[in-house]
């Protein structure tokens, strides 16, 4: 918990959980209105939360934003909020049940008033939910801002965000807890499992699932890495031995993805997110349309016809993506031409300068690829925003799909070209190694060290500023300074880029690792450093993100599965092209191709059967879920029988 | 409703709904015990139903079974049972909601006591459910039968069935209703849509979905049939024009299956089965094992380890199926050898007798195939029984899978061999036509006319017997005779064989119809007669089956989808082999094969994308379902808020 507690307007002290930062020029009447709505009782449509303005810091006052507000709540309010959200907690009998205030004493670890029963991340999530669902009543606009329109049922916070009146809303870090977590996470020298429960406790389920997946993926790669080392040591040049490796690859990538589903279901069950019902998603802040009525909730809400969105997706976005893919292919062809041209110059006149010229195309290509990825990412975000999706989840899915397809093309097109058009295994191996190693180094640098360095410079300036003014006996920063420090930290943009990186690494391993068996070893090494750098950036570089109660890794599961299907096709083709297999069909190439295709179809069929046979949720968890449902049905039946017998008594 | 009503033990008249037939030598004490348990009040663990022994008929008494019982219930009991089952009914506002007795007046068509609110099929389903869930209390065995063990919580009816004490339990037909239904269904000369709502009303959702699918499938085939006719009329011998037809085939079979899912969801929504929660399935009557406790319900129940079942499935059943497939292939090869041998004899010495010899192999092969299908079916049933599945649904799935794979092989292996090994398109066309036409004629005969003829003979004997004794003024049979007549009717074994037949027809059309464009026309004709014969046998040949509240066609959807994937592969291969396409690659066969394979992969990918893009449930029904869920969440929230405010009042 934070060292300092604030005093709310009614005089009782409260622990601040969430910070609201309004624009520094926000009008007084808007602030007063917002605070009164947040403090108002639930019966009157308020959020019934505690809120207080942050005092001035010790920094340069003229630069500080005075409109920072700390939000907290009483323990009773938080527990009721947790019930509204349908949070699942462990009961004393070991089962997971939706928390209800009435049956609070049946839950494990519930003592006294319930202090410590909800983790700080859960409390912050409750507050975020309460703020998000604070709705306008009769107001037609935000007081003082006639252009910030409101209508009954509109989420106030979302309107403030979309109009730029609310700059940000973020949860506070918990210094003591963070120290403990970072020690067990990345400061220990000893190699150990990820402290997933602690990560979940501090950052929520979405983050914990990412680290769980990263850990699982690393372990899953171990057998590949172990087999890869002797391949590297003994058969380096004998790469027609890779048939065994490719077959292993095929089975491996199907099985690990299926087993991950089971592991993910287990984790989600014990974290209580597996069977939690999702609340109805609000429209995203950027969503716009004619005001109408939501057919599900009946609330007033902007309406945008699905047919129009479909037109935008299929007539603009899809052609744009295809055009970009074509461009990417075109640039790849230019690269190969340049390379051929450099090689011919070198062959004609092998001097030092022409030798250097050999590297020029690769360097240009690498830079162009990075630049294209960057530009495309912006274009994809713009387009997906323009498609005007109602839900954040739908926006995310469309964005992920766009970025994924393009990144896949950009990263793997040249490898596919080398493997299947040029059929040069030696070059494939070289390119793969170069791509893997450079992308790894670049990523680690861009992802953790650069932001950390920038952050450190900023922090130092701040701390120096404070120390200039006065000296503290304890080294801890006072609350006011901590809040201002955190407000300046970069915002964590979610696990998108982390998963994308893993996805591409998975591609390198599953698609082509049979020609470069050391790929798995490199990816394992990368993952180990990735864990540390990711953990580090979560703890030190970014603002704390709100918890995200995920039950699985979502659309990424699908992406990885699609990759594993492509891997089956690729590996079969590589096997078919190997000299070893070719020697079985000395006279007829047709025969060879037909056999390869047949084998591929059998393997694909086998893969789909395997997907059916391996159950997504382990049996013991299925049983527990069924038991919960059975109990609720039985309770309902019993209640009805009781009511019927009471009814018959009153009739008599 | 039935013309005659019986008088129950307490003196009030009741409409009989279900018949229980006990063995004629059942001990008196067992009968008395069973009747008292059925009549006992629910608080005491009884079923609280009305039951009465059927009086002696007018037939030969020495042959009649005296132990026939009629079961009925009061309207209030039936409505409560419908609530227990969670039946969905239409409300006055047009939405579908789970019926509750307390809010009965909110439901459409609920008048007075509720007479006519539940269809007779629903009433019978309620009674079946109540009888099935009649559980043993302290009894350790059925009175008078020390070997018929019972334990607390064991379903009494299931034990009686598995020990042969209860011969059968079946719902009664409703003569008036049946006449109306059969008139609108198959007696009208005018071609019209299937009366799906009436079928559902009389036979339940499972039957109605089958007829819905049959109708949908017939309509879906219309475009194929319409395109097929000009192909037949103008290009009969020019079968290298089939590329266009094959491409059409590919798209068609993907799209119709996806659209069927939407149609099925719509039907199930309006019939109230789409969102009905399934009750916990009881173990099947034949399931055995050591007595233990069900981890879900906590009830005493036989336990059989899953690992043992897996061993049986993978070490015995799977090898057996593979062996049968091998045998089937082997017999097919013998057939082709015999055919070659017959042909060579005819070529050497073309006389009348050797010409007849040409037909001998086909006839032998056809007979052997039928015999193998029959024997295999028994073997599959035996094996699946022996695998000892706990649930009826799991038993059905395993049985369907076994029978499906073998039937697919038996029916299509020779066609595949002709198409891809012999590459004789002329022969393929001939075989396809022969197979389609003969199987059609055979099926119609075996399925409807044979059982009808047998039934008719039996009925006539009975009616003659009655008329010999006395003459009725009205032509209607008295209740007693009707019950005995129906008890003698054949039992309808479910939609398994009907779906299997459709599945094979779908195979003929989607796999090979491009070489025989008239296939779709034949299948459409077959389907039209199939509708009539199926309707006829449901109304006149079989005992009325219990309603089966299905929300979709279950495992068959999967089977049809698997077939459509195979169809993509087959059609691509046929296209690749066509002289038209071959002429594009005059010198290189390798090039041709690679292009075909690439096209196939693109089509398969496209197919899967299409599966994702077409939503399984139409948008307006998704909205309605979401609205129901939203309302229940809101109601819960409101209730909690009310409780909280009451609590705070009492504290004050």
Automatic annotation (TrEMBL), chains A, B:
Pfam families tied to this protein: Anoctamin (PF04547)
Localization terms from the record: Membrane
Similarity comment text for this entry: Belongs to the anoctamin family.
Main location as per UniProt: membrane
Name of the molecule in the record: Anoctamin
Keywords carried by this UniProt record: Membrane, Transmembrane, Transmembrane helix
Membrane topology designation: Multi-pass membrane protein
GO molecular function: chloride channel activity
TM spans (from-to): 208-233, 239-260, 313-336, 356-378, 399-420, 432-454, 502-525, 553-575
Domain Anoctamin transmembrane: 199-627
Superkingdom in the source lineage: Eukaryota
GO CC terms: plasma membrane
